Amino acid sequence: TKDRMADNYLIARASQYSAPESGGDALPIIYGDLTVPARTEAGVYSLPKINTGGSGTYCIAGHAIDGSVSLFDDDGLINPGEYTLNLANDYEGNGEIATAVFSVAPSGSVTAVCKGKKDSSSILLENPALIAEDLALNFWGFFEQDIDRQTLSRAAASAQSQGYAAASVISDDHAPADALTDLLGNFLGRFEVDAFGRLKIIFQGTETGSIHPVKVMPELEAAEVELEVSRDGVINQVPALYAWDDVEGKFLLHEDGIAERSAASQVLYGVRTPSSGRLELTWMRSEAVARTVQARIVERFEEPARVFRIQDETFRALEVEPDD
Q: Is 136 helix (H, G, I), strand (E, B) or coil?
């Protein structure tokens, strides 16, 4: 599993069909609700033209989707009467995709917004942990035994309890490790591969406050213990860009983080933002979710970290883990 995380996943392309306009065009993978924020003039991703016959057939997604489709061309929103949708079309026997067959030729390129892939219960996939599972099993070729089900269940429950909803377009080849880092990182999550080769999906829990001790250290008779306070990691305001537009190559929305800042921390340490200056959240489209992530980061890092330096020559193992 660890080796496969770095392997390049080759996204399906229009060349698998008989008469595409450009065989190199990717069949987009769509997750979540791309209809947020509302669009009136253009979509947020481009559709490949997979058949040039008649007025054209376009691929909305390289898989079946939930729906709520709006299509746009160079003149703006296209009248739905000018095309026929099939949201689960086994097109030319190459597997189910979502298609739009036009009866009136669109003007220029076609873009879209929609609601993306559904789970086995026909519910829109938005939980980032479950999207990670779906990618692993249905695109990257992983097997059920390759995923730690216990940590996945906990991660999905944590994401749901915090209201996390992911939405984005995958439109190029990628390594699973890179895709998971982007997806999970947007929601303060991460992944690892354990000693048994199982993929583990992990999200920060719902605890509040900055750095609180969660374990009592044993008394170290032969050790020297020093405590330092480091202000370098303080973050008390988190500006964020979100709602990625794949067509324009830019973010549509910005949240300055003022509503979720820690005024008390700013009095003590000044305005401290992430090292990059802001977050760029490509898997996020909701203001409410963006603010939740901003608040979680501030809660965790509004106070300086306490750094313990322990010098112990007895070679005893200390039961200390990440995030303790």
A: helix
pLDDT tens, position by position, 63-120: 999 999 999 999 999 999 999 999 999 999 999 999 999 999 999 999 999 999 999 9
How buried is residue 206: exposed, middle or buried, by Cβ count under 10 Å (0-12/13-18/19+)?
exposed
Q: What is the pLDDT of residue 260?
A: 97
User: Quick one: CA dihedral 53, 59, 65, 69, positive or negative?
Assistant: negative
CA of 309: how far to CAs of 210, 228, 229, in Å? 20, 8, 11
Closest residue by Cα to residue 253 from 215, 280, 220: 280
| pLDDT tens digits along 19-76 | 999 999 999 999 999 999 999 999 999 999 999 999 999 999 999 999 999 999 999 9
Q: Tell which residue, 231, 177, 225, has the closest CA to residue 201.
A: 177
Q: Widest CA span of the chain, in angstroms?
A: 83
Closest CA to 113 of 78, 141, 148: 78
Beta strands 189-193 and 305-312 are unpaired
Q: Show the CA angle centred on residue 49, arms to residues 47 and 51, nearest 5°.
A: 150
Question: From the CB of residue 221, how many other CB atoms can be counted at a distance below 10 Å?
Answer: 7
Q: Are 49 and 56 in contact (CB under 8 A)?
A: yes
Q: Which H or E run contains 31?
A: strand 29-31
At 258, the amino acid letter reads I
Residues 32/165, Cβ–Cβ less than 8 Å? yes
